[in-house]
Structures are given as C-alpha cells and as structure tokens.
Design brief:
CATH superfamily: 2,3-Dihydroxybiphenyl 1,2-Dioxygenase, domain 1
Radius of gyration: 16 Å
Structural class: alpha+beta
Distance between the termini: 39 Å
CATH topology: 2,3-Dihydroxybiphenyl 1,2-Dioxygenase, domain 1
Shape: globular
Order of helices and strands: HEEHEHEEE
Strand content: 25-35%
Number of domains: 1
CATH architecture: Roll
Oligomer: single chain
Number of helices: 3
C-alpha cells in the first residue's frame, strides 16, 4: 500500500492571551505570519511559518536527560510534558535575552550540551516550554 507523504505539520498552541503569544512568536522570535483568520464567537488564529521542522520523538528518560542537561533538574510540567518546542537559532544567548524581554520566563540560561549545542530553556506566553538552541559545530 502506498502512503502519501505528510505535506505539513501544524503544532497548535492554545493560549488565553492571543495577542501576547502572537507578539512573542512572530515579533520576538521572528516567525513570519503566513495567514490569520477570525471567526464567530471571537475565534482567532495566526499561522506562523517555520523555515524547516522535524518531529522529535523522545521517551520519558530522554526528556529527563535533556532537562538535566539544559536546566540541571526535571522541569517539564506534567501538563506539557509531552510537548516542548525547540527552535534552532544563530545566537542562543541573544535570542534568550530578546525572548525574556518579550515576556518569556527563562527557566535556564544558555548551557552547552554534551552534543555541542548551546541550549536555553524558556517558558513562553501560554505556558509552552521552548528551547532556543545554537549548534556549536558546523
């Protein structure tokens, strides 16, 4: 049986403060707005582009290990334990400062990992945990 390849991945983040979340991900993180829609009852959505994406599947031991490396302790919240979004950036320290100024809580500052990346953990508006990472080896 031939299976048609997936054409797009959309990660949907529900937030009570739509404006704050859009400003954070679009304006502070720099994702471009592809389209946005408004519907009945105050429904709103903004679809933001990410240049490339991968789907990383990790078991609980891996999640705990990444927490230990990036933060030094288990910080993944139970309600979001299964989802953390990681963004590769050119300068993890500068992006961390910019995102903190835009309302993110810095959970752990940029930390060099054993796999040679500089990773910072933040909690974005809406409660989504994110990692800003910079590859140190070309």
């Amino acid at each position: 049986m031939d299976v048609e390849p997936v054409k797009q991945l959309r990660l949907v983040v529900e937030t009570d403060d739509f404006e704050e979340a859009v400003a954070f991900f679009r304006d502070a993180l720099g994702l471009t707005e592809r389209e946005s829609f408004e519907g009945d009852g105050g429904a709103r959505v903004a679809i933001l582009n990410v240049p490339t994406a991968t789907l990383e599947i990790a078991n609980p031991a891996q999640v705990r290990m990444i927490d230990a490396v990036e933060v030094g302790r288990d910080v993944a919240r139970r309600s979001t334990r299964s989802i953390r979004v990681a963004f590769e950036v050119a300068d993890a320290a500068a992006v961390t400062e910019r995102l903190a100024a835009a309302g993110a809580e810095v959970v752990a500052p940029p930390t060099e990992t054993p796999w040679r990346s500089l990773n910072a953990r933040l909690e974005a508006p809406g409660g989504l945990q994110i990692t800003a990472f910079q590859e140190l080896d070309s």
